[in-house]
Amino acid sequence: MSLENVDNNEEKFYTNAVNYWSEIPATIDGMLGGFGFISQTDIKGSKMLLNQLFNSKDPPEKHYALDCGAGIGRISKFLLTETFEKVDMVEQNEDFLQQAKQYLGPKVDKIGNFYPEGLQNFQPETGKYDVIWIQWVLGHLTNADLIQFLISCGKGLKKNGVIVIKENVTSSDEIEKDEQDSSITRPLRHYHTIFQKAKLECYRQLKQQNFPKGLFPVYMFILRPSGDILNEMSHENNLVKLENVHDNCKKDNVICETIIQHDSDLKDKNATSSDIVEFKNSTNNDENKINIESLLKFDDSMKTSLDNQ
Ligand SMILES: C[S@@+](CC[C@H](N)C(=O)[O-])C[C@H]1O[C@@H](n2cnc3c(N)ncnc32)[C@H](O)[C@@H]1O
Question: Which molecular function terms from Gene Ontology are attached (predicted)?
């Protein structure tokens, strides 16, 4: 299944998803396709990511968050209203939003707006949000709409604001289509291409741990509009962040150490950007190549500084 196929049958792709969700009970199990029991583990992983974010340099404020594809408000209830003063919810199924008003209990007071809209038609208010949280919904957007939506999310951020995406990814390098709920699951590589096209910089990427075997791998990405991050982060910072991000994954730690070691080697011998690209290409694991690419940021400023050494 190619992305072009999805993009060319856009109307059917969206109406089939609306029809699918209209038959789904407004419960946690309904939201998580019968895997309601993973909700706590999911929230725990997300809290860890938010903690890392708030302990980083120039963190966002904790004033306003947006929950995208919010369903009945599972994430708003257990994660976002715990951290932020106010939360808006955008969700295309109005019944889920109605149910959210009950399900959230007293936390409903923290909800600013309920937006009953598809993300493909929604534009966040400019400069409003500290964090825009998007989870388990992007497979319902076509490539073109996803890029447009992410661009408008970038505009919806306050200073130091971030977009957090938490999504299934395929283990293969291929897109997988689910005809039943009319969604696609993208490989990691596609997400990174999409982020680039939306002019977003992925400065942290973390794999959710402790989910049952047999599910798609789930990744969390923290994204900022590209210009901000290039100005504020040095290459050394990126290496430290790389270590921190992967502190719970032995394999990645080894890779991280290797990069750091190679990095000083590369610097010692007055390496140019092409030496680094060659090093990246010499790793033999696709996923790690992507980690290296996104976390070491082979961006223009770094290339320039290395080439000028
Ligand atoms: C798998 S559930 C996840 C709900 C919530 N994010 C969570 O993790 O509990 C997917 C949600 O996305 C909503 N959805 C599907 N397509 C959408 C679209 N194009 N725009 C907005 N919401 C959509 C569904 O109605 C459903 O509530």
Answer: N-terminal protein N-methyltransferase activity
